[in-house]
Amino acid sequence: MTSVAFVPDGFEPPTPLVTDSFRLEPLGPQHNEADHAAWTSSIDHIRATPGYPDGDWPPLEGMSLEANHEDLVRHAADFTNRVGFTYTVLEPAGDDVVGCVYLYPTSVPDRDVTVQSWVRADRAELDDRLAEAVATWLAAEWPWQRVDRCGR
Q1: Over the Cα atoms of the chain, what is R_g?
Q2: Which Gene3D superfamilies match (predicted)?
Q3: Cα 76 from Cα 99, distance rounded (Å)
Q4: Alpha carbon distances (Å) from 115 to 30, 64, 91, 93, 134
Q5: Sign of the alpha-carbon dihedral angle for 27, 115, 3, 15
Q6: pTM for this one?
Q7: Which pLDDT score is estimated for 3?
Q8: According to DSSP H, which parts of the chain are helical?
Q9: Alpha helical stretches, state H, 24-102
């Protein structure tokens, strides 16, 4: 891996991560309504999650469904372009969004990636399980050795 590349050439991002409690798949515009409902119902909970607030997300005033769609298109493009990887967290069976995981380049010295995750307030019991499952997944299947887990 060079200092410019986020992931090595030829690396294929693993999908999906599946547990008894949730499953991850790449976030995209097809998740718009469920994603919007998930985070807008849990703004205070997300901002209290380790690693948040990061300054402006989620916006206290929310955002329109159209603006959320644009954000999901951007995340999907980042995934395609291999400059960041965002996964939606879904119920084990079904398409109900319960959270999100973000894997992006870091500004923290001596780290390769910053990992943030959140779950809906009504699924708060999954916060730690999700963070631990993602940490194990990163160690086993991703190329980064020095992970910034944002206080987890």
Answers
A1: 15
A2: 3.40.630.30
A3: 16
A4: 23, 26, 21, 25, 9
A5: negative
A6: 0.92
A7: 47
A8: 32-40, 43-47, 65-81, 127-141
A9: 32-40, 43-47, 65-81
Q: Which domains does the chain possess?
A: 17-148 (3.40.630.30)
Residue 36 to residue 137: CA distance in whole angstroms: 26
pLDDT (tens digit per residue) in 36-72: 999 999 999 998 888 776 667 788 888 999 999 999 9
Band (152; pLDDT cuts 50, 70, 90): confident
- Rounded Cα distance between 71 and 135, Å, is 25
145's tokens: 């050795």
C-beta atoms surrounding 105 within 10 Å: 15
- Per residue, the 3-state secondary structure of 20-36, as one string, reads CCCEEEECCHHHHHHHH
Q: Which is it for the CA torsion 52, 60, 120, 14, positive or negative? A: negative
